[in-house]
Specification:
The complex is a heterodimer of chains A (309) and B (264). Helix content of chain A is 30%, strand content 19%. Chain B is an alpha/beta fold and 264 residues long. Chain B folds into 3 domains: 92 residues, Translation factors (Elongation Factor Tu (Ef-tu), domain 3); 116 residues, 3-Layer(aba) Sandwich (Rossmann fold), CATH 3.40.50; 47 residues, Dihydroorotate dehydrogenase B (pyrk subunit), domain 3 (Ribbon). In chain B, 20% of the residues lie in helices and 34% in strands. Chain B contains 6 helices and 15 strands. In chain B, the strands form 3 sheets. Chain B has a 7-stranded mixed β-sheet. Chain B has a 6-stranded antiparallel beta barrel with strand order 1-2-5-4-3-6. Chain B has a two-stranded antiparallel ribbon with strand order 13-14. In chain B, a hairpin with a 2-residue loop joins strand 1 and strand 2. Chain B is globular and about 50 Å long. Classes of the chains: A alpha/beta (309), B alpha/beta (264).
Amino acid sequence: MADLRVNIGGLLMKNPVTVASGTFGYGQEYDEYFDIAQLGAVTVKSLTLQPRAGNRPPRLAETPAGLLNAIGLQNVGIEAYLRDKLPFLRKKGCTIIANIYGYVPDDYAELARRLESEQGADAIEVNLSCPNVHDARSVGGCKLVAQQPEAVLKYTRVIRSATRLPLFIKLSPNVADIVEPSLAAQEGGADGLSLINTLLGMEIDVKTRKPVLSNLVGGLSGPAIRPVALKMVWDAARAVKIPIIGMGGICNARDAVAFLLAGASAVAVGSASFRQPDTALQVIKGLEDYLEEHGFSRVTELVGALKAE
Amino acid sequence: MPFVRDCEVLAHQEVAADHYRITLAAPEIAEQARPGMFCMIEVGSGYYPFLRRPFSVERIHADGVSFLYKVEGEGTRLLSRFRAGDTVNIQGPLGRPFPVVSGMKRHILVAGGIGVAPFPALAEAIMAAGGTPEVLLAARTEHLLIGARDFSRMGCLVVLATDDGSCGIKGTAVDLLKQELGTGEGSVVYACGPMAMLRAAHETCLAAGVVCWASLEAHMACGDGVCMGCVVPANRETEAERMARVCREGPVFDSREINWTACP
């Protein structure tokens, strides 16, 4: 059987498949459907220093081959995560990637410090790209950190100095050139990149002539964004030296292989888990089959193996 | 514990214009299901619709479950095309069921339109526990009063209302509730229907000092407490609990748990 192990910037994963933050809760719900310890890692929903109630409903709008959401980072907060959610993941023996969100660099640093000192994670993924925590009513919205390479550099440096855990920066596709923030994260000391967060989108109910989402706009995920994500991974992978966790609309092993070929070292299954809770597990199995069929002995041989002129 | 299963469609009938009942062979799900719980049904095999659709369990049989639904959008339109013998993938049972409150003199079930969907199973459970459900059924017009005869045959007391007065009193489900509740002494109310109706039922019950169990509807992505998409404002002190998930904390809530003024 092919070797599925990967090392993502110091995080050892038994296979290259994790789940996208926000699509898997804190793991426990989906453990009712399959043994989540089989995943390369469990990436938990964004954690903030204080609990957050999130945006008012409606928060969801289904669109062709995708899903628009404006949850607004509803989460239990770091305290309750460490107390109530972490023990389950540890007991299961999961490899944990904790996704964190803050309002200023020091929030992130504080979250990273606590996660490291209380063994709350095996790696940290930094959400610099949530599209749903700003007021969309202002013209042009509010710029995300991930849309400003110099801010990405600053934030990454601050968080880097707070932790020795493997540090991944999750970037936004809502930029003209994904390479710029990718290089900034690398320069700031990131051990890896998570690409991509959701694409900004909007849906309008023409009967009521109102936006469907209470927050007016939201983040688009699902198969609709897969080609966009794939191209961004390919662009970034050729520019940076640090590994990339590729995500965006992955529904099966074939999708996952495409991300690896484009240069991702690992992949995350996102919204597809909502429809089929064990999608990530099926991706792992399908990946094994692919490697065997095509005569690869290690999954790492696929990374960046795209045959492009 | 919920399951994801391919199930055979045992029967699928149009019970009124744009209203259907689908019965599926699903013994494991039937064994775990309780009145008020729901299942997520995969309505198509492609990427549009991408998500499953949530449906309350209408009846629980030994070997399967049925669902009553109204064609509202693309998902239900696709679901309505399945025929007996086809296979449909369902996930469930999910959510918090109706509590069958024992020791009450009156069990009053209030349904607005397709809000009748979870009540056949609840009526059966109440009868099995020795009660006689009073079913207050309201719809736009006579032919949309779904299941009235079934409830009567089952032994429930049935009172009807229509918006156009074509059957029963001319009025709404809440008009019926106000008419039938009386002092409310020894009563428990179960309500399902549009949000405005549930809110009015809640206020009526609150004024009478009667507990009202409301089954809410919401768009859901996962149905399983993960996505945080289906929330409703709740009367909770802490920030983390201020938004309750319809799929996990509900879909059945003590109506006093809901912050009705903050609902959209």
